[in-house]
Specification:
This protein is an alpha/beta fold. The strands form seven sheets. Strands 1, 2, 3, 4, 5, 6, 17, 18 and 21 form a nine-stranded mixed β-sheet that branches. It has a five-stranded parallel β-sheet with strand order 7-16-8-9-12. The structure holds flavin-adenine dinucleotide.
């Protein structure tokens, strides 16, 4: 289909891709667009992950879209509810008929002469190759590999006779009723799985090498419940959203400025929920500062409840080797397990694995510098969505999609076709993702970088980004707007 051309091609039909399509529909109704999705379903993360208890760990008033209220008082929603919310949004905005499922985008080539991307996709159902062109390419591909979760080397695992499961590929037929389960890991997935499995398992042990900060928050938002009865849905949503943005910003800033105080508060919160005499320092007091890695939220303290009731326990130790019946630890203790779950994380993947070429030259991602956290230096008419790490993903996804619409309207208004970010004048670079979690450290070198100052740097601060992205200037030192040329390159006539 070489003649297939759209103004905007969105890659990915997850939370971000559906949101991007809705923004286009609202802000640029004249633009044609398509969404290419590798899988056969809408929802991305919220469709892929099916482990017991799967839920958000940030509140739905900020994980929901700015333009479509989350109307339930449940702040922490389960995976199915989030999936439905994304699907309903797609239906409401008539996005569905623009999605081409089972299309995995493999490469995209930009030609400055025509000011177009030529995009190659493989059909995952028929193995056909499909070629489309577009004027603007918008990658909403998430940040990790879908085909394989991360599993570290597990010494002697072949000797283990029980079931070994990764949460990213939860088997439909796995029944954990009455079973002894060991969950390896201490991140968001592990703290979600442990209380959920503990409802039916004989016992669940969370085996962690080192602790994570765990904070109990109410699963329902009292303010949301009260406002819903008094205000229209949009107004109530907006108030609760900003309240939560404010709380998470204060939490993050306080953690950065007074880490010792926040550490003490988190320790005290955990201690209050655990049995008297429990070794809080060993199991719930990490060595790193709060927000060097993501904080784990447990709704209504469900993890602590399971520990208190003896249905679950936490062991902080390292694995010496697997045995036929479980795991032997460095301390010499042995954990018997019918099921071992490796909640050991994700494999980061930039741009869903697609490669970019600009005028015949391959784009080397680590050599590029992110502009406003959403475009790449030297790559024209291209944006990507990477959500916040210290707040809900969607807050940033909404800002990025809104900004793309602003850019498209600006190009039309000024009779130009091409917008290209420039690299910062100095050579200093910082990582694009400012977290010290294992999954980030393993892959950060393969990702684009940021500069040290705006507009090449985002500060993980939503209020600041609202000013920059919704109300800030489109034209600045970090970007060049040009016209298409017939000769094969865009002109250097900058519109500033
Ligand atoms: C278990 C889990 C829990 C999480 N909980 C939270 C939370 O509580 N709060 C929060 O803010 N964030 C959370 N996150 C982060 C989460 O990924 C985001 O909330 C959000 O779902 C990301 O949406 P997305 O659309 O950008 O990416 P994804 O959900 O990853 O969707 C990307 C889509 O793009 C498609 N795709 C990828 N590559 C290609 C390609 N080459 N061609 C075609 N299609 C492609 C994929 O198939 C997928 O459908 C969580 C992540 C995980 C894994």
């Amino acid at each position: 289909m070489p003649s297939d051309h759209v103004d905007v091609l969105i890659i990915g039909a997850g939370l971000s891709g559906i949101g991007a399509a809705c923004h286009l529909r609202r802000d640029c109704p004249d633009k044609t667009y398509a969404v290419l999705e590798a899988r056969d379903a809408i929802g991305g993360t919220w469709d892929l992950f099916r482990y017991p208890g799967i839920r958000s760990d940030s509140d739905m008033f900020t994980l929901g879209y700015s333009f479509r209220p989350w109307t339930d008082a449940t702040a922490i929603a389960d995976g199915a509810a989030i999936r439905e919310y994304v699907r309903d949004t797609a239906r409401e905005y008539d996005v569905q008929r623009h999605i081409r499922f089972s299309h995995r985008v493999t490469r995209a080539e930009w030609d400055s002469g025509t000011a177009r991307w030529t995009v190659h996709a493989e059909r995952t159902d028929t193995a056909e190759t499909v070629v489309l062109t577009c004027s603007f390419l918008f990658a909403c591909t998430g940040y990790y590999r879908y085909d394989e979760g991360y599993t570290p080397t597990l010494p002697g695992v072949d000797a283990y006779a029980g079931r070994l499961v990764h949460p990213q590929h939860w088997p439909d037929d796995l029944d954990h009723t009455g079973q002894r389960v060991v969950v390896i890991g201490s991140g968001a997935t592990a703290v979600t799985l442990v209380p959920a499995l503990a409802q039916r398992a004989a016992h669940v042990t969370m085996l962690q090498r080192s602790p994570t900060y765990v904070i109990a928050l109410p699963s329902r938002d009292r303010l949301a419940g009260a406002l819903r009865r008094r205000l229209p849905a949009n107004a109530a949503y907006s108030v609760v959203r900003w309240k939560n943005v404010l709380l998470s910003t204060v939490n993050f800033q306080l953690s950065r400025r007074a880490p010792a105080l926040v550490k003490r508060l988190l320790r005290r919160g955990a201690k209050r929920q655990l049995p008297v005499g429990y070794d809080v320092d060993r199991h719930f007091s990490p060595r790193y500062d709060p927000w060097d890695q993501r904080l784990c939220v447990v709704p209504d303290g469900d993890l602590f409840t399971a520990v208190r009731q003896g249905r679950a326990s936490v062991v902080t130790d390292t694995i010496d080797a697997f045995t036929a019946h479980g795991v032997r630890l460095a301390s010499g203790d042995e954990l018997s397990a019918d099921i071992v779950v490796t909640a050991t994380g994700l494999n980061l993947l930039a741009l869903g694995g697609l490669t970019l070429r600009v005028d015949g030259v391959d784009v080397d991602l680590p050599e590029t510098v992110a502009y406003k956290g959403m475009m790449l230096s030297g790559v024209p008419n291209f944006a990507l969505t990477l959500g916040y790490t210290n707040a809900s993903w969607t807050l940033k996804a909404d800002l990025v999609a809104g900004y793309v619409c602003r850019l498209l309207r600006h190009l039309d208004r000024t009779g130009q076709q091409v917008v290209t970010p420039l690299p910062p004048p100095d050579a200093r670079r910082v990582p694009l993702i400012d977290l010290r979690s294992g999954y980030v450290l393993r892959s950060v070198d393969a990702l684009p970088r940021q500069g040290e100052r705006a507009p090449w740097r985002l500060y993980q601060n939503y209020a600041r980004d609202v000013l920059l992205m919704r109300h800030g200037r489109l034209t600045d030192e970090g970007v060049r707007f040009t016209r298409r040329t017939r000769q094969g390159r865009s002109t250097d006539r900058a519109e500033v």
